[in-house]
C-alpha cells in the first residue's frame, strides 16, 4: 500500500475517498477496529465512508491502496453499498475510542485518549498501535501536554463500555473471548470490575470457564469460585485438570473443600483426593494423574491417535507411558515410556512394546521440587513418570507444572511480558476481517 504507513485517526476524518479511476466516492467518517480482550493492539477492519447521498458504507482495509494527507484511494473491486451497521465486536476509533478515560501504566496517572494512530504491519494488516493521551487534573491549571504511548502502556481501557446495554456488553465480551488463549482471556478478566467478571463467569460454559480459572492467580480463582453456587463450582472443578483442581481445593476452608468434593462425580473426585494426600511442595503435589497410559500390546497407530488429542498439553503429548493393566492410575506394573518422536519413526501396525525406553529415570511422589527441577535439567525432558515403591505409575510431572512453582508468586498478575528478569532467592513451593 502506497502512502503513509502510520496515520492518526483524527486526521483521517473528513478525508476524501477516491475510486480506482480517481473519481470521488465520498469522505471518511470513521475507522472500524475489532474489539479484543487481551492487551494486543486491535486490528483495523476498515473505514466508514459517507457517500454523497449521506449513506454510510463499510470499506475493508484490503480495498485501500493508499492513505495520504490529501485523501484515501481504493483498489479495483466491488464494495458493498449496504448501509454500515456496527457489529457487537467492533469499535469506532474516532467516535468511541477517543475521549475514553484510561490510566498510564508507568505512573498510574488518570488520562483521556485524545487520538489514536493506526499502523500497517509487515503482514499488511493495520492495527491501532499508538494512543495519544492527556493526563487529567482536578485543578484549574494549564492543560497537560499530550503523550503518545503504545497500546500496551495504558490500563483500564474497557472496550465494552461503548454501549449502554449490559446484556450487549456481556455478548461483546463473550464474542471477544472466541479464538484467544485461556491465559489471554484470564488476563482480560482480571482487568474487569468484579460485577463484570461475574457476568462473564455466569455466561461461559463449564469447560471454558475451567480453562480460564486455571490461568488466574490464586486469589482470583477463589473469588470466582465463591461467586458460583456449590453445584456449579463442583462442575467447574470436574472440568479442571485434577492437579489444578487439587491446588485450588487445598486453598479453600476444609469444610467447603470437602463439600465440593462430595458434590463431584466419584470418578472425577477420586484422582483429586489422591493428589490432596501429598504436600504441595512434593512431586506428588505437582503431578497430573491423567497421562497417556497404554498396555504393551497396543499398536503404534493407537498410541499416535491418543497423542493427537487436542485436550493434551504439548508436554503430556511428548511421551506415552506403558504399563500392565489397569491403565487408570495407579496402574499395574510400570514398564517404561515411548517417546512420541520414536512413535513417528515406527510402522503403524507395530507394537509399542518394541519401542519402550526403560532407561528414563523415575520420580518418587515424595520427591522435592528441587529434585524434579534437577531431573528436567539433567535429562532434557518435558515430562517425567511418577512411580511408587510397588512399581505402579501414579501420574506424570510436566515442566510447565514445575515452572509454575518456580516463577514469582505474582507472575500471573504481572503478565507474561512483565515478569522481571531477576533471580529468586526463595522459589514458590506450591481476527478475521468483516465479511
UniProtKB/TrEMBL annotation:
Keyword Magnesium: no
Region (Disordered): 414-435
SMART domains membership: CBS, MgtE_N
Domain CBS positions: 287-354, 356-414
Domain of life the protein comes from: Bacteria
Matches recorded under Gene3D superfamilies: CBS-domain, MgtE N-terminal domain-like
Single GO molecular function: magnesium ion transmembrane transporter activity
GO cellular component: membrane
Keyword list, A-Z: CBS domain
Name the UniProt record assigns to this protein: CBS domain-containing protein
Lineage, broadest ranks: Bacteria, Bacillati, Actinomycetota, Actinomycetes, Nakamurellales
Amino acid at each position: 500500500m502506497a502512502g503513509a504507513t502510520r496515520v492518526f485517526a483524527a486526521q483521517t476524518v473528513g478525508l476524501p475517498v477516491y475510486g480506482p479511476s480517481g473519481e470521488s466516492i465520498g469522505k471518511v467518517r470513521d475507522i472500524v477496529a475489532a474489539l479484543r480482550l487481551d492487551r494486543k493492539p486491535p486490528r483495523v477492519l476498515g473505514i466508514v465512508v459517507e457517500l454523497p447521498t449521506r449513506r454510510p458504507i463499510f470499506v475493508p482495509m484490503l480495498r485501500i491502496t493508499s492513505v495520504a494527507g490529501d485523501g484515501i484511494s481504493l483498489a479495483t473491486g466491488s464494495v458493498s453499498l449496504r448501509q454500515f451497521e456496527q457489529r457487537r465486536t467492533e469499535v469506532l476509533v474516532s467516535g468511541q475510542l477517543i475521549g475514553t478515560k484510561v490510566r498510564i501504566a508507568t505512573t498510574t496517572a488518570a488520562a483521556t485518549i485524545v487520538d489514536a494512530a493506526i499502523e500497517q504491519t509487515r503482514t499488511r494488516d493495520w492495527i491501532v498501535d499508538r494512543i495519544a493521551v492527556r493526563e487529567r487534573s482536578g485543578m484549574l491549571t494549564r492543560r497537560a501536554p499530550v503523550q503518545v504511548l503504545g497500546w500496551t502502556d495504558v490500563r483500564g481501557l474497557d472496550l465494552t463500555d461503548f454501549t449502554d446495554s449490559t446484556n450487549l456488553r456481556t455478548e461483546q465480551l463473550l464474542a471477544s473471548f472466541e479464538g484467544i488463549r485461556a491465559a489471554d482471556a484470564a488476563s482480560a478478566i482480571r482487568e474487569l470490575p468484579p460485577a463484570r467478571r461475574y457476568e462473564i463467569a455466569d455466561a461461559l460454559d463449564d469447560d471454558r470457564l475451567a480453562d480460564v480459572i486455571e490461568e488466574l492467580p490464586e486469589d482470583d480463582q477463589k473469588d470466582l469460585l465463591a461467586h458460583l453456587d456449590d453445584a456449579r463450582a463442583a462442575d467447574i472443578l470436574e472440568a479442571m485438570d485434577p492437579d489444578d483442581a487439587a491446588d485450588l481445593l487445598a486453598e479453600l476452608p476444609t469444610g467447603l473443600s470437602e463439600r465440593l468434593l462430595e458434590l463431584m462425580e466419584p470418578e472425577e473426585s477420586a484422582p483429586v483426593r489422591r493428589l490432596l494426600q501429598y504436600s504441595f511442595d512434593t512431586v506428588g503435589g505437582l503431578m497430573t494423574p491423567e497421562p497417556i497410559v497404554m498396555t504393551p500390546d497396543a499398536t503404534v497407530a493407537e498410541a499416535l491417535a491418543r497423542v493427537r488429542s487436542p485436550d493434551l498439553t504439548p508436554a503430556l503429548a511428548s511421551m506415552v507411558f506403558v504399563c500392565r493393566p489397569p491403565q487408570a492410575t495407579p496402574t499395574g506394573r510400570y514398564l517404561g515410556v515411548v517417546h512420541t518422536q520414536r512413535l513417528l519413526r515406527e510402522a503403524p501396525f507395530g507394537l509399542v512394546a518394541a519401542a519402550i525406553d526403560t532407561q528414563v529415570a523415575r520420580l518418587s511422589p515424595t520427591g522435592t521440587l528441587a529434585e524434579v527441577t534437577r531431573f528436567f535439567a539433567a535429562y532434557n525432558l518435558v515430562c517425567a513418570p511418577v512411580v511408587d515403591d510397588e512399581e505402579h505409575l501414579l501420574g506424570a510431572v510436566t515442566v510447565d507444572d514445575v515452572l509454575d512453582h518456580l516463577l514469582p508468586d505474582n507472575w500471573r498478575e504481572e503478565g507474561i511480558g512483565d515478569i522481571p528478569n531477576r533471580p529468586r532467592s526463595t522459589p514458590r513451593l506450591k481476527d478475521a476481517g468483516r465479511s
